[in-house]
Amino acid sequence: MSGTDIAAVAALDAADSLAPMRQRFVLPEGLVYLDGNSLGALPVGTAARLREVVEDQWGKSLIGGWNMHGWVAASRRVGARIAPLIGAPDDCVVVADSTSVNLYKLIVAALKAKPERRVVVSEPGNFPTDLYMAAGAAWTMSGIEVRTAPADRIVEAIEDDVALVLLTHVHYKTGRKHDMAGITRAAHDRGALVLWDLSHSAGAVAVDLEGCDADLAVGCGYKYLNGGPGAPAFLYVAQRHHASLRSPLSGWFGHAAPFAFRDDYAPSPDISRFLCGTPPILGIAALDEGVSVFADVDRDRLWDKSQALCSLFIKLMDERCAVFGFELVTARDPTARGSHVSYAHRNAHPICQALIANGVVGDFRAPDVLRLGFTPLYTRFADVWAAVETIERIMAQGEWDRPEHHVRAAVT
Ligand SMILES: Cc1ncc(COP(=O)(O)O)c(C=O)c1O
In the listed set 292, 308, 327, which residue is the last one of a domain according to the structure? Predict the structure, then answer.
C-alpha cells in the first residue's frame, strides 16, 4: 500500500479556501498548535481592541461607557454573533458567566419547570463540571436524582420521571458526537427537556439548535471561539421557554428593569433573564474579537475542513504509527465525531510532554488519552503532517521516555 505523501498534503493546503484565515491569528513560528479545543489562539485584532476598550472607552468615558459604548447591551450583542454558529435565532443567545455557572442556572430552571419529575439523566464520563453542577443542583433542591446511562443507552434511560437530559454534544475526551436531533426528539416524546453542552462544538462543527428543536444549551468562549483564557461563556434558551423558565441566580442584570432599583425581583421577559451580575466588559470585548473572525467565513467549508483535518490525521497515524500501540478512541466516521481526535496509550502523558517539547501542542487527558484538536480556522494540513511525523520520531527514537517528560504539571 502506498502511503500519503507530503505533496498530496501540500495540495490540500493549496486548495483550501480557508487558508488565509490563519493570518487572522497570532501563532508562534514553527509551533504546531493542536489545542484550540482547550484554549483558542489569539486573534490578531484582540490586543488593539482591548487597548481601545481600556484606554479610550474605560479611560476616557468612565461610567458613561455603559451607555456611550453600548456596554450594557454587550452580552446580548455578542450572543447574537455566536447565534449563527450554533443554528440559533439572534435573540436566544446571551454571553454570561462561565459554562459551569450557566449549567447550574439552566439545570435548576429546567427542574423547576417540571416539578412533577425528579431526575436528571446524563452519561458517566461526561465533562466533570456538567456532572458536578447537576449534583450541585440536586443538593440545592431536595429529592433530585442524577442518573447516568452509557452514551448508547441514553434514550432508554429517559423514563417518565426524567425532567432533563444533560449531555455534551461532542465528548471532551473521545470526540464522539451525539445525535442531537434524535435524542432531543426522544426526550420530547417522553416529556423531558434537553440541555446541550456545546463547548467542543461551537465554532468547529455544524450545530443546528433550532433545526433540532433544542431547548437549552451552554458553551465555552475560550475554545474554538477564541475569546481568551477564562473568556465568558454563552447560553441558549429556545424562544418558547423564555417566559416560563427562570434562573435561580436572580441577579439584577436579569431583572426586567435593573435600573428601577425595585425591592422585588421581576425577571426580564426575554433572554436577558438568564443574566446575573454586571457583565465583564473586557472579557466580552475579547470574545467579540474571537467571534468576529467567523463573520465572513463559509461555515459549510469550515465544518468540512474540520472533518478533513481529522480524517487526514487518522489516516497518517494508521500509515505511520500503527506499530506504537496507539488505540483510536474517536470515531472513524466523520459524521460521528467532533473536531478533535484522541488515542489511548499507556504512556500518553510522557508522549504528550515529548510532543510539546518538540513544538506539537496537544493535551493529555487522564488516565491515558492523548487528544489533538484541529481548529479549522487556522490549522493547516501541513500541521497534521508535521504532528504525525513528530509522533513517529519520538516513538521510534524513544524520546518520549526521557525523565523530564514524566513530570506532571498542575494543568495537563
Ligand atoms: C464540555 C465542557 N464543559 C464545560 C467546561 C468548563 O467550563 P467553564 O470552565 O467555563 O466552567 C469544559 C472545559 O474544558 C468542557 O470541556
Answer: 292
Q: Which of the following is catalytic: 130, 197, 288, 383?
A: 197
Instruction: Check if 261 is active-site.
Output: no
Q: What DSSP line would sit under 137-162, residue for residue? A: HHHHSTT-EEEE--GGGHHHH--TTE
**272 and 349 assigned to the same domain:** no
CATH of the domain at 313: 3.90.1150.10
- Distance from CA of residue 115 to its chain's centroid? 30
Q: Give pLDDT, residue 408.
A: 86
**Does 172 sit in the ligand 1 pocket, CB within 6 Å?**
yes
Helix (H, G, I), strand (E, B) or coil at 267: strand
Q: Find the 71 Cα to ligand 1 centroid distance in Å.
A: 25
Catalytically annotated residue among 33, 104, 172, 222: 222
Domain of residue 185, CATH code:
3.40.640.10
- pLDDT per residue over 313-342, tens digit each? 999 999 999 999 999 999 999 999 999 999
Last residue of one domain, picked from the residues 272, 292, 312 = 292
Active-site residue identified among 25, 33, 104, 127: 127
How sure is the predictor about 1, in pLDDT bands with cuts at 50, 70 and 90?
Answer: very low
Share above pLDDT 90 across residues of the chain, in percent, rounded to a whole number: 97
Any atom of ligand 1 within 6 Å of the Cβ of 326: no
Please give the residue range of the domain that contains residue 164: 47-292
Record the cell numbers describing residue 326, joined without a space: 496507539
Q: How many helices (H) and strands (E) does the chain have?
A: 13, 15
Q: Domains in the chain: how many in total?
A: 2
pLDDT at position 83 over 70: yes
Tell whether 271 and 302 lie within a shared domain: no
Using most ligand atoms within 8 A of CB, pick from 38, 97, 100, 235 the residue to mutate for ligand 1.
Answer: 100
The predicted pLDDT at position 296 comes to: 87
Please enumerate in sequence order all residues whose Cβ is within 8 A of that of 360, keeping only pairs 6 or more positions apart, or say none: 32, 34, 386, 387, 390, 391
Do 132 and 250 belong together in one domain? yes
Q: Is 320 in the pocket of ligand 1 (CB under 6 A)?
A: no
